Amino acid sequence: MQSLGIDLGTTNSVVSVERRVLPISDRGHTTLPSVVGFLPNGTISVGDTARRRRAIDSSNTIYSSKRIIGRRYDDGQTRNFIERYPFEIVELPGGWPAFRTRAGEFSPTQVAERILREVVQRADVDPQRCEVVLAVPANFSNAQRQATADAAISAGLGCPHLIDEPSATALAYLHSNHPCRRALVYDLGGGTFDCAVLDCSKGAPRMVSHASDLQLGGDDIDYELARWVARLVLEKHNWDLANYSETWDRLLAHCEDAKIALSVDREAPIFLSQVDPECPSGDEAVVLTQTILEEICQSLVSRSFIACDDVLRMAGLRPPDIDAVFLAGGTSFLPVIQHGVQAYFGRSGFIEFDPTEVVAIGAGIASSC
């Protein structure tokens, strides 16, 4: 049987078949935005097309739903999500949250099901002829794991095996001739930060300890960038970009694009007329630089190393005791993250694999082991 590894990510989803990551986005990329749009004509869009609708139809364009999958409506993390995101979320019978859209109410599990169906369809594989392994965060509770498995079952993936994301990352590197005794996986994705110490002395990685920050991810960097831009525009033009939810969400989307650009470029402009055509700024652009990004998100980056302190303490280790640091998650592309890892561990993090792909690769390896 074929090996099928899936990383159902907060921001993007990735699939590997026979350990090879496949291009599944409209633009030929290997990452498919984990976004589901419920369109005015009654159809449902998943991926790039849906993502482009975030700024114009925010209440019907669902993203980052993994943050609350398997969580109850009265959970503190769900309440925080409701306050931060532009969705109408209602409580279903039984106490579970659901997104209210023009097409009806959809639970986070049903949103995940739509994404998984799209991923498998675009990969052009028959899941019934595959050994399916689905990666999940190490900190997921039993309820969250079950909700993810339920989404996979509803999407026609059978009953998939689940693997912790740090273990999948370590597997990918260990099978790529990076032997080590002790590894730390530093995984900064779109919704959460996860880190784990793994014992790799016997070949297969064994998780020794793990820690997470459930409110630290690329989404939070986007939010801080948007707040910074909004304050700047308010001071300079007396114009509040945070006053209307549609304008604010459009600003968030532009800040996300700028953040991604700053992974490779030294600066990235945000044209205010594209955020709010009524803004009295003319064709002015706010130019974000790597220096500005580093200043804005320094406190967020520092929080990731508080989690690293915790995971090392639980393992009875110090940073010099780690033989290799494996990077995962798209936000790990940012130079500020890589510099922080170098400073904390005294060594560079491995980034041989694309951090957005490495989990799916490892999951595919696990399915063939």
Give a brief rundown of this model.
This protein is 38% helix and 23% strand. It is of the alpha+beta class and 369 residues long. The chain has two domains: 2-164, ATPase, nucleotide binding domain (Nucleotidyltransferase, domain 5, 2-Layer Sandwich); 180-351, Nucleotidyltransferase, domain 5 (2-Layer Sandwich).
Mean model confidence by pLDDT: 92
* CATH C-level class of the largest domain: Alpha Beta
How does the helix and strand content classify structurally? alpha+beta
CA-based gyration radius:
20 Å
Q: Could you say what the CATH architecture of the largest domain is? A: 2-Layer Sandwich
What order do the SSEs take from the amino end to the carboxyl end, as H and E?
Answer: EEEEEEHEHEEEHEHEHEEEHHEHEHEHH
* CATH topology title of the largest domain: Nucleotidyltransferase, domain 5
Count of alpha and pi helical runs: 11
* Domains, number: 2
The total beta strand count reads: 18
Termini separation comes to: 12 Å
